[in-house]
Amino acid sequence: MSKATPSSLRGLANISFYAADLAAAKQWYTDLLGVAPYFEVPGYIEFRIGDFQHELGIIDAAYAPKAMAAGPGGSVTYWHVDDVQAAFEKLLAHGAKEYEPIIKRGEGFVTASVIDPFGNVLGVMYNAHYLAVLAAKTAKHPA
What we know:
- It is a single chain.
- By secondary structure, the chain is an alpha/beta fold.
- It has two domains: about 10-60, Roll (2,3-Dihydroxybiphenyl 1,2-Dioxygenase, domain 1), CATH 3.10.180; about 75-143, 2,3-Dihydroxybiphenyl 1,2-Dioxygenase, domain 1, CATH 3.10.180.
- Helices cover about 25% and strands about 35% of the residues.
- The strands form two sheets. It has a four-stranded mixed beta sheet with strand order 1-4-3-2, with helices on one face. Strands 5-8-7-6 form a four-stranded mixed beta sheet.
- A hairpin with a 2-residue loop joins strand 2 and strand 3.
- The longest helix has 13 residues, at about 130-140.
- It is globular.
- The termini are far apart.
- The model has no long low-confidence stretch (mean pLDDT about 90).
């Protein structure tokens, strides 16, 4: 068995979504997350959320890469939640549209995803591995 080596991908630094109406996106995500953006400049807002204060940036669609395809697609970023059903229902109640229904992927892994009102795919996941990593970090660095 080989010894594990550090990955060149060390963790999420920022997830960037695009919105043609940045003011509406700011309001929608502030209402959904229950916090205001911690950083704002013209054309960009950023939230810090979750156990590790990951960054969710929303960029004015005018700055989207020229090669970016219209509509949802590409990858799905899943945010860990404790209750996928409740998170999914909250997203739908806020006006998001179902992209993929709730699916049990295996023991300890459940996912669902939506398209936000601005065309971005937002995934939610109950992830046993995430909880194990969080527990290990918390044990090493108690609050």
